[in-house]
Design goal:
The chain has 188 residues and is an alpha/beta fold. It contains five helices and six strands.
């Protein structure tokens, strides 16, 4: 029997990898300290060569309890993320299956983007900014020119995500444990 892994899916553009590394660097040890073994971060660089990449992404989305979305102009220019990943997460969120956490990394026009999704046969229009972000889209991480201030904002965002995830994690009952979160070798 294969053990199901519970995932925090990181949706981001490869140009924003620095924000992924920094976030996981702060949150990973906290998840590890909670002491269980099946919750981990997942992002597309974890797909092995020779794998059917779309199938791997869809499986990771299916196993997700949360989506950490690194919002930037780079993400908005990823047609795959904008037409496949984000609409699916928004549909799942509207059905209370997934929590969405937006980390605003770079200034962009995401508040102008409308996603057309289908929930229980009903067409809806939603914006990513309808969901409370971990930080403000008006002051993305890049706007803090001092690394120390940027780190402070990142840690505050991590605290908000962990606090918001606690009820979902508790509802998993004998859920997978929270192991060291790694993303492509980050945090090992």
């Amino acid at each position: 029997m294969v053990t199901r892994v519970t995932v925090i899916f990181i949706c981001h553009a490869s140009r924003d990898e620095e924000y992924v590394r920094d976030f996981v660097h702060h949150v990973g040890p906290v998840l590890q300290s909670l002491g269980s073994a099946g919750l981990r971060f997942w992002e597309d660089s974890m797909i092995f060569a020779g794998s059917v990449w779309n199938k791997e992404i869809q499986n990771a989305i299916s196993n997700s309890i949360a989506a950490l979305i690194i919002v930037s102009d780079n993400l908005m220019n990823s047609s795959y993320a904008m037409t496949n990943e984000l609409p699916r997460f928004l549909e799942e969120a509207e059905q209370h299956k997934v929590d969405i956490f937006c980390l605003y990394a770079r200034e962009c026009l995401i508040d102008e983007m409308i996603f057309r999704i289908c929930v229980n046969g009903i067409q809806k229009e939603v914006k990513l900014t309808d969901y409370q972000g971990l930080n403000s889209p008006n002051t993305p991480l890049e706007s803090f020119h001092f690394r120390r201030k940027q780190k402070h904002e990142l840690i505050q965002a991590a605290r908000k995500m962990l606090a918001a995830l606690k009820p979902r994690l508790n509802s998993l009952g004998s859920a997978p444990s929270l192991a060291r979160a790694t993303v492509s070798g980050i945090g090992r």
